[in-house]
Amino acid sequence: MNSNEQYEVDFVIPKGHDGSCGIEAAVNVIYNDGQSGTFTIKQSDIFPQNTNIFSAYSDQILIDEPGVYEFNLNGQWAQNGLNSELILRLVDVHSGDKNTIISVDLYNRNQYTEYLAFSMSKTIKLDRAKNVQVQLVTSGGIKYTTVKGLVLSIEKMQV
Fold first, then answer.
1. Hey, what domains does the chain have and what are their CATH numbers?
2. Distance set, CA 157 to CA 2, 36, 66, 88, 139 (Å)
3. What is the largest CA-CA distance in the chain?
4. Fewest CB within 10 A of the end CB: N or C in the chain?
């Protein structure tokens, strides 16, 4: 390359509205490890902090506005037993009805695995406020099982 060569950079800076990030508010929940029943919340972070869209309680998250939400549920299943099944459900407990928002069904049929990682995402439109909680159901050959590192993230999308 010759040091006498000159280059010109030509580009256009766009004008107009910057647009939005696509997320109005979010909550990130870390749960205590659990073996059965309803999981309790270890830590929750709500963004922005001054939003009224989400509230966190000991074992429930209140979603206080209708809208489009993305739910992400992930963690690890520490299992014991072949031919076992674990079902994690994110359910709406608002007004006593038990509507499942997310169901993660895990099966261990033919081999022993110490840990099984899982992740599930779902985007849905909610037409009313909801109280949601994560519940664990086990069946089959399970004598002892633990769900570890369970994290639930909920984001309200701007549409």
1. 23-157 (2.60.120.40)
2. 52, 32, 11, 24, 36
3. 78
4. N
